Each structure stands twice: as C-alpha cells, then as structure tokens.
C-alpha cells in the first residue's frame, strides 16, 4: 500500500452493500430524513464537560422514544482552548455499554480520529462491537481538528490525510478479508498467514465520512458509505447535496445510495415557535421551527440530522420531550414509528423507565 498517493478507490472497497446492515437501514433511505443525537445526552452550556449522571437511562429514553441514532465523539485529551470534552468516555468502550441497555437505536461514532488509531486493533474493536450490538454500529471516521493532540501520539498533523488513507486501507483489509495480505508504510505488513476474527455480521460495517477528513470529494464518495458534514446555511444545503450526488455519480456509483447528513450544536428554546436562526456554534430554534427547517432540508436531499443540544439551557428531558412531540413524528426512524410524546417529568424521567434499572454512575 502506498499512502503517499491518493487513489480514488482503495482495494476491496467497491460494491460493498451497506443497505443490509440494520444500523444503516434504520437511519438511511432515499428521500427520507432521520434524527440522531450527539452524545452526551446532557446540557452543559457553561462548562467543558458533562457530569454523565443518568447517562444510560437517558440513552434508554432516546431509544424508546424512537430516535434514529446516538453519536459518539472521539476526544482523546482535553484541550482548554477548545473547551469541550464530548461524552468523556472513550467512544468504542462507551458503545459497548450503550449496546447492552438499548434495543433498536443505531450507535455510531462521529467520528473516530483515524490517524491517531492503530487500524488493526480498530478493526478488532469495530467488528466485535458489530456483533455485540447485533449490527447496530456505524463507524464514522474523521482526520481530527485539534493539532495539540498529535504530538502526544507522535503523529504529524500536516500529513494526517495520507496517514488516514493508509490506516483506512489496513482497517478495511483486516476487517473484511480472510487471511489478509497488506503492506503499509506506517502499520506493518501481513503475508496472509494470520486472520482477524470476528468478521462483520453482514460482511461490512458501514463507514461514514465525518467531513472530508483531508480527502478529495471523489475519494470520500468512492470509499465511504455516506457523509455527514456541518450544517450549512439553509440556502446552501441544496448545493451541498447536489455536489455530493454529482461526485457519487462521477466515480461511477450513481446507482448506489450514498446518504448525506448534517450535524451541529442546537440551542432548543422553550418557545417552541422561536424562529430558526444560525449561531456561530450552531443553530437556535424552537422545536416546531426546527421541524420546518428539517422539512426543507429533507426536500433538498438531506438524509440525516445529528443534533447536539449541549448549548441549550434546559434539562435534557425537556429537550427530548419537545423533539419527540414536534419533530420525531415527521422524521421517524426507517421502519419505526415514534412512540407517543412524553413531556418533562413524565416517562422521560430517568427514574421512571420500565426496564431494569441501569447503573448511572459516571
């Protein structure tokens, strides 16, 4: 494998069908838009990190409400200059915990900073989680945006795009081929005498580009099963979707469904009709206005919206209730009807779940 040149299609990646994968099927279909939540399920507008109290109970509530996905961020170290710890827990370890307490919701990463990962171990972790979650895991990959982390891993920030491609080739080869052979400039080589198990349940764990990860649009369209990017202004969304669809067609995959999603911070106001507005860090909206925005996004071709309400100054149970009442009925998960709405202090209370109590220690 040569990591110094960007081939459009890495070996063994074409014609892999993600559409049979349960986690993918719950989220993505042509002309449909589903709703996901970026972890943690807790608001902390004035601090760098959450308390992680009741985090498993809130995940159960999101699952039972009918949300499409829970998304984990990959933040190895806290950098005060960025001021956000994400869900604190290591994302792949956390997915294992979430898989034990949820039943249907897709669980994904948004995204693993691939240049900082050892791809052979990542393959073992991801395929194990694929089995443990009964095919509900999606692997979102990114190149990372925090230069301060790279020296701790002895990795060059400026060449992270090349390292991303090299790691990706090794990951896919080891995860999906029997007794794989490969040679990598950074991650060793295999002559085919060893195999890695388990293999993915459905032959392939769907991989999403979280942003372009320092790659060309053509490489992303050829090698990823879909893409999730930051939320652009509403009038720019049709162009972003059209560019993505055009690129998918250009690389010869025009008949293959490659979903396009958006993600960002959400300040969900108590006034459910508060007009939709853009913020430097995301968007502010009431739940009904948000639904109207998402209807426009769906009409433009967006297939998924991953929302991060951490900047909202309200209890998260109220946020779930507003979204469940005003948004989920219009954007249910594929093949799933959203359950009846619940208001704050009702069934979304962490202490009132009907399942056996989950440990809520942070």
Written description of the protein model:
The chain is α/β, with parallel strands linked by helices. The chain has a single domain, classed as Luciferase-like domain (TIM Barrel, Alpha-Beta Barrel). Helices cover 29% and strands 16% of the residues. The chain is built from nine helices and 13 strands. The chain has helices at 22-27, 55-65, 91-101, 119-132, 160-176, 217-223, 237-250, 287-300, 316-326; strands spanning 34-38, 69-72, 106-109, 112-113, 137-142, 181-183, 189-191, 207-210, 226-230, 260-268, 277-279, 282-285, 304-308. It has an eight-stranded parallel β-barrel with strand order 1-2-3-5-8-9-10-13, surrounded by five helices. Strands 6-7 form a two-stranded antiparallel sheet. Helix 3 (91-101) runs parallel beside helix 4 (119-132) and helix 4 crosses helix 5. The longest helix is centred in the middle third of the chain and has 17 residues, at 160-176. It is globular. The termini are far apart.
By DSSP, the count of extended strands is: 13
CATH topology: TIM Barrel
| Biggest sheet descriptor | 8 strands, parallel, barrel
Which radius of gyration do the C-alpha atoms yield?
Answer: 20 Å
- In CATH terms, the superfamily is Luciferase-like domain
Arrangement of strands in the largest sheet: 1-2-3-5-8-9-10-13
Distance between the termini: 42 Å
